[in-house]
Every structure is written in C-alpha cells, then in structure tokens.
Amino acid sequence: MTAGAIAGMPAAYLTTPCDVIKTRLQVEARKGDTQYTSLRHCARTVWAEEGFKAFFKGGPARILRSSPQFGFTLAGYEVLQGLLPLPGEHDEQPSTPRGSLEPATGLQSAKAPLPYLRSRNALKIILDLDLGFGRPKIPTDSNGKPWTGIPGFGSSKA
Question: In a 10 Å sphere around its CB, with 0-12 CB exposed, 13-18 middle and 19+ buried, how is residue 62 labelled?
Fold first, then answer.
C-alpha cells in the first residue's frame, strides 16, 4: 500500500458524514421514509432519528474503495511525470536545479536554486494582491454615503 493510499484513509472516513447527507438528499424517498428539504434538515433528522453513528454508515467501505483509488491515481501521476518531464526540468546538474534568467534583476543569470526562485516569485505575487480582492464593493449614492437599498423595496428611504 502506498503512502498516498494510507494518507487517503482518514480523509475518506472523515468525509463520510458529508457523503451520507449528500446521498440521502439525492435518493428519492420511498413511502414512509423521510423527505429531506435541505442539508440542515437532513443532518438534524438523521441525528434525531438514528443518532451519531448513522453519519458514519459505510465509512469502512469508503476507505476500502478510496484508498486503492487514490494509490493508483498517485502512482499514475508519478509515472506520467517521469515520462513527460517539463521543459528545463533536467539540466546539467539535476541535484541542484537552477533558473536560467531572473527578470526582476535585469535579465542576469540566476544564482539561487530554482525552488527558491519559484517560492520568492510566488510570494511577490501574493504580496502584490489587493487587500480588497474578492470583497464586494458597496455602492455609494451621489453624496458618497453607502447605498442602503432600492427606494420602495425595503429601504429606509421612500
């Protein structure tokens, strides 16, 4: 058993409650069974009617299915990575990969190991992100005050 398959075991078991809820929401209820309306309703009903253990029904079966699947996926990835190397991956000195050019320093030869250069460049990108990235912009009115809603549709202004 590969290390990847062993690492997948806790993940497969700990996500079982989510899979139980998902499956119960997807399956059409038979006569006499509870018809679930939402995630919260399903979780509360399962807890009330069947208890905590019901959330882990099928957990061992998920481990037996997921572990070999994850192991084969990881093994396939490693084989394909060896067969299809990235350009510049195999330089003269494979033990210490080095970058060829470093644009931030005027296109001089890079003297640091490639993993260091990559992580430094990733850090530069992260630090350059706007702090408001992904946050919704609150519209303002003509006076610059935050918008409170559409007049006549539940806003305080009429």
Answer: buried
90/69 Cα distance (integer angstroms):
30
Alpha-carbon distance 74 to 81, whole Å? 10
Q: Classify residue 108: in a domain, yes or no.
A: no
Domain that holds residue 36: 3-83
Q: The tokens of 92 are what?
A: 């003269």
Q: What is the DSSP string of 119-144?
A: HHHHHHHHHHS-TTTTPPPPPB-TTS
Tens of pLDDT, residue by residue over 42-91, are 999 999 999 999 999 989 998 888 888 888 888 998 888 888 876 665 55
Do residues 98 and 113 touch, judged by C-beta distance below 8 A? yes
Are 62 and 55 in contact by the 8 Å Cβ rule? The answer is: no
Q: Report the number of distinct structural domains present in the chain.
A: 1
Q: DSSP characters for 54-120? A: GGGTTHHHHHHHHHHHHHHHHHHHHHHHHHSPPTTSS-S-TTS-B-S-BGGGTSBPP-SBHHHHHHH
- Please check whether residue 12 lies inside any domain of the structure: yes
Look up the pTM and report it: 0.45
